[in-house]
UniProtKB/TrEMBL annotation:
GO terms for molecular function: ATP binding; ATP hydrolysis activity. The lineage of its organism: Bacteria, Pseudomonadati, Thermodesulfobacteriota, Syntrophobacteria, Syntrophobacterales. Gene3D superfamilies: P-loop containing nucleotide triphosphate hydrolases. This is ABC transporter related. The keyword Glycosyltransferase does not apply. Residues 38-274 form the ABC transporter domain. It holds the Pfam family ABC_tran. Coiled coil: none annotated. Keywords: ATP-binding, Nucleotide-binding, Transport. SMART domains: AAA. InterPro entries: AAA+_ATPase (IPR003593), ABC_transporter-like_ATP-bd (IPR003439), ABC_transporter-like_CS (IPR017871), P-loop_NTPase (IPR027417).
Amino acid sequence: MATAQLTAVRGDREKGFDKTFQTGRWARELEMDSSDMIVVDRLNSRYRGHQVLYDVSLTIPGSQVTVIMGVSGCGKTTLLRHLVGLKRTDPGRIFIEGEDLGSFDGRQLEDYRRRVGILFQSGALFNSMTVAENIAVPLKVHTRLADETIRLMALIKLNMVGLSDFCDFMPSQLSGGMKKRAGMARALAMDPEILFVDEPSSGLDPITAAGLDRLILDLREALGMTIVVVTHELESAFQIADQIIVMDQGRLLASGTPEAIRANTDERVVQFLQRRADSGQTGIENYLSSLLG
Ligand SMILES: Nc1ncnc2c1ncn2[C@@H]1O[C@H](COP(=O)(O)OP(=O)(O)OP(=O)(O)O)[C@@H](O)[C@H]1O
């Protein structure tokens, strides 16, 4: 997309954002900032009565990359499911531009989901469709555009992620990194204002993973997109984040800029950061020594 077009898209979003926010009746009550895209207020969550999130409160600023980190099972994906409106808070509140997500009716929820793009861990492509057909799915479901227009829009998105030469390939013909990129193109199909990405680096080699990190930063810079990334990868998190949220056993342990998280002296935060670094090294050493017998 040309720079002028990108700027126009961004300008429209910002205008819409301010208008919506000013009418948000909860905004004043919680003293939200107009740059806050999402505010989570004492969120609790359960699966069949089993509590997995405890009083999580956090803010996701607009046009920034927020990274959610924590060890396996701490509740990152569950938090993501709440943020996209796939799971009801029990109890707690989530505000989207000052409006209570829990009070949305079916239509408002659908409108919200239309403004959101999600890249699942696996890429979640349909194996029976070509790459371009996969990207076209959200456009076919949510718009009445002509097939030719939809194909053109799909090609634009594939171009954005560097896959324009692979539009007629089947997913099985793509590498893991290319599948992730195709998943990203599909998440971008509806020009989302908010992009949620679950584990972008999982299963990828470091160079491919770094390419995806670069793509996330490009999207923020070019489109002013609000991006929420769940990851285990410490290095990637510090590379892309404007804000890092560290979770531990269903609770928010710390949140702040990468610099603030690095400087955090809380024992559990320090342990988390060191354990990730240590376990990576030990893993490689163990792996090499296992190869050497
Ligand atoms: N559908 C489900 N039904 C029941 N329990 C679930 C379900 N999904 C997750 N859980 C439980 O909720 C807790 C948090 O899981 P969640 O997947 O949110 O953690 P996570 O931090 O994303 O983990 P990972 O990094 O391994 O993906 C875990 O104890 C998990 O077993």
